[in-house]
Design a protein that fits this description.
heterodimer; A: 234 residues; 9 helices; B: 254 residues; mainly alpha; two-stranded antiparallel ribbon
């Protein structure tokens, strides 16, 4: 039995499709429960529709980038397992790194990989992330509910304490934007400038609907500009 | 833990109870899927690897990714709330779910740490997950015709710049005083200046590994920024304006 006979087998397609359908069903359930609860606690229907429209419109572009990664991953592990790994749990960068680390640990390459190698790669890619999310079962609830009560006794300190997490995340995550070269930094700046222009336009033209598309427009504009910046600086 | 449950009213909140219960079960089912696919495939084709080979192939990955994903859970859960279970199950956290959350919070402007913020985050994460699953499904169906376009130099280049293109827009929310629920905060970024410089220095020391240790950096920064923010708030360097302050000021003018 060859690597490809297993990696593109109909059994694997069926298992993967069933798994993704289950996760999709869970997402739909989450969407319905959270939508209803948001309305129940006073978020307006209009705001919720804007959240949905905005989330859909801006998710499309990063998803295209993920599909572009799918092309690379399919070349290594075949269509069905790449489909599973990118639809749930993984990310393009992790999966590519995991598959190449697993193969180099085994001292094989795609050309001479056997069906046994594929079995081993599936486990090597599956274990680290899966073991990581088992942590969530035990610790997400105490972490989340522990932070919900932060600053509960002080009306002013309470909302300020809650902003600490978002500030920390953004401060940590934007650092590479300043250190990965001019093309990276200019793409970052272009996205910010487009967002400012759209917000200003929305406010001047009294077109509130435009605000829902700020992230989508900024993303498309900045990514298009990045091709140009990359050509100049890299 | 039992004392914490008694003292913290959030543990009695029916919404949080339900969402965490759903999230935990969802994670159990997801783990069964992630493990079930390789297990059934290997058993069916008779290609089950030896445990020692699995450890050889995944030992390095486990050593890196288990601590990293635990560190990220600790740092990201306070913001993502009960939807963190679904976030981890569907993956693509930094390039999709976190921006979706920040964007949704910006649009609806709820007070952070409330049920409204948690529910809005859940909607954004679920929608982003469904869009990605649909797009990847379309990608799988059209893999052959799309391959030349998706593999083109322009698309491959642009795909490398998703994160700066996302965060350029989202980082603006840090500079806006309005933090939801009509509350405005002035000067809160002062507490993050030193950690930001420290992170930048760290990045220049270990540029290749910064993204691997990002989760640990967040864990170290949360208490530092928390304590600094509190001290600055008590010294009056950070000011919090509540909606009732505006109402009182309006009443005074009248």
């Amino acid at each position: 039995m060859t690597f490809q006979q297993v990696s593109d087998s109909s059994l694997l397609y069926i298992l993967v499709a069933a798994g993704i359908l289950l996760v999709a069903a869970a997402s739909v359930y989450y969407l319905i429960v959270c939508y209803k609860h948001a309305l129940a606690v006073g978020v307006s229907k209009e705001d919720m529709h804007n959240v949905i429209k905005s989330s859909v419109s801006f998710s499309i572009v990063p998803s295209i980038a993920i599909v572009a990664g799918l092309v690379s991953l399919v070349a290594v592990i075949g269509i069905p397992y790449a489909w599973l790994r990118l639809s749930v749990i993984g990310s393009v960068a992790y999966e590519l790194m995991a598959s190449s680390m697993a193969m180099s640990a085994l001292g094989v390459n795609v050309g001479d990989a056997t069906a046994q190698t594929f079995g081993l790669m599936m486990w090597a890619m599956c274990l680290p992330m899966t073991l990581g999310i088992i942590f969530n079962i035990f610790f997400v609830k105490p972490i989340h509910l522990g932070t919900v009560k932060l600053g509960a006794g002080d009306k002013r300190w309470g909302p300020l304490a809650q902003t600490v997490f978002m500030t920390t995340l953004l401060v940590t995550l934007i650092v590479p934007m300043f250190g990965k070269g001019l093309a990276y930094m200019l793409t970052f700046a272009t996205s910010a400038v487009i967002a400012i222009i759209i917000s200003t336009l929305a406010s001047k033209l009294k077109a509130d609907w435009l605000n829902s598309f700020t992230l989508a427009f900024s993303l498309i504009g900045a990514m298009a500009a990045s091709i140009w910046f990359d050509g100049i600086f890299n | 833990m039992a004392k914490e449950k008694k003292l913290n009213p959030a543990y009695q909140n029916p919404y949080y109870k339900k969402m965490h219960s759903v999230g935990r079960w969802m994670t159990v089912v997801a783990v069964a899927i992630f493990v079930g696919v390789p297990l059934i495939t290997c058993l069916h084709f008779g290609i089950m690897p030896k445990f020692s080979d699995v450890m050889l192939a995944s030992g390095g990955l486990c050593a890196i990714f288990i601590p990293v994903s635990i560190a990220e859970s600790i740092a990201e859960t306070p913001l993502m709330g009960s939807s963190y279970y679904l976030t981890c199950i569907t993956g693509n956290v930094l390039n999709l779910k976190l921006p979706a959350t920040l964007n949704a919070l910006k649009i609806t402007n709820p007070k952070q740490g409330t049920e409204a913020a948690d529910a809005v985050t859940g909607v954004a994460v679920a929608v982003a997950s469904l869009v990605t699953m649909t797009m990847i499904f379309i990608g799988v169906l059209l893999l052959a015709p799309l391959k030349p376009m998706l593999g083109s130099a322009a698309v491959q280049t642009a795909a490398q710049y998703v994160l700066p293109a996302l965060f350029g827009c989202l980082v603006l929310t840090m500079f806006v005083p309005d933090v939801g629920g009509g509350v405005r905060i002035y000067g809160r970024l002062k507490a993050a200046i030193v950690p930001f410089i420290a992170a930048l220095v760290l990045f220049f020391i270990i540029p290749k590994y910064y993204e691997v240790v990002e989760g640990f950096v967040m864990i170290i920064f949360i208490p530092i920024i928390y304590v600094t923010t509190k001290k600055m708030y008590h010294k009056g360097m950070i000011k919090v304006v509540l909606p009732e302050d505006d109402e009182a000021a309006d009443a005074e003018v009248k």
